[in-house]
Amino acid sequence: RLYRKRLKQVSFRNTERTMFWWLAVPVFIFLSHSYTQGPMRDVEYIHEVEAPVAAQSVLNGGFPWRDCMTTAGIFHGLIRGLVGLGLFENSTWGVEAAHHLIFEPAYWVLTYFFFLLLFGGGAFLLLMFFVLPFSVPILFGHSFVRLCLYPVALALALTAFRTRKPWACAAAALMQLVLAIVTPEASFLLPVFFLMVLASELKILGIGKWKSFRLPAIVAATTAVGLLVFFSILYFNGALNSLFDYYIGYTRDARFIRGFP
């Protein structure tokens, strides 16, 4: 009886600890970073107007890249706009409300989950997400909402390296591809992830067994199939050339195309 009672106490403590780190803390982080702004007086046309214009274009029958381009990618410039117009208000204020009420808190929560997966719960995690952001706001108070999916991609990559399971590598590669599509500045993560998987296989199996490298092959195959599907969708919607024009124009003449969604 004493053993069973002790076992129940340990199980309850583990459950309590899990609920604290995986539920209570992220809810508090979300609420602490969620707020609405007042009336918008000065509108900054490069960033604040780009999202609602792109969203209106798609709602009126347009297709991304073919009919509208956004400088920071479709996640920040289009998806954020669609959520704001759909949930809050058909205006720039609605997009900004979605930014501050949904996307900015989600950025911090997803980042927290990645560090929780990486380090586990502890005083360091509380210091990082509760003390530093509010005590040193100039360094930690700004959130890059367009990078909201970064922590998800990194968490899947971490899971792939820890488990070395084919499904984990495929899921991580697919997430890297999705991130590269919706946030172009994150495109570098895709080849970096492949090279890291390849380096991991070389270290574990050795260069003499390169024919047994399943995980790099899975990553490459998943990426190739994903790109084929993505390019096919763009091609049949007449947007494939526009995608290439976007990358060429933005990398060469970004200072000229900013402000033209």
Rg result: 22 Å
Q: Which band does the percent of strand residues land in? A: under 5%
> Termini, distance in Å?
69 Å
Count of separate DSSP helical elements? 11
Helix-and-strand structural type: mainly alpha
Mean pLDDT: 80
Task: Note the overall shape.
Answer: flat
Number of strands: 0
Q: What's the order of the H and E elements?
A: HHHHHHHHHHH
Helix content: over 70%
Which segments are poorly predicted (pLDDT under 50) over 5 or more consecutive residues? 135-139
How does the major sheet shape up? Answer: none
Summarize the structure.
This protein has helices at residues 2-33, 50-59, 74-87, 92-119, 123-135, 137-140, 150-163, 166-182, 189-205, 214-236, 240-257.
Features:
261 residues; mainly alpha; 73% helix; 0% strand
Structure in words:
With 261 residues, the protein is mainly α. It contains eleven helices and no strands. It has helices at 2-33, 50-59, 74-87, 92-119, 123-135, 137-140, 150-163, 166-182, 189-205, 214-236, 240-257. Helix 3 (74-87) crosses helix 4.
Q: What is the topological layout?
A:
Elements: H1 2-33, H2 50-59, H3 74-87, H4 92-119, H5 123-135, H6 137-140, H7 150-163, H8 166-182, H9 189-205, H10 214-236, H11 240-257
Helix pairs in contact: 1-4, 2-3, 3-4, 4-7, 7-8, 8-9, 8-10, 9-10
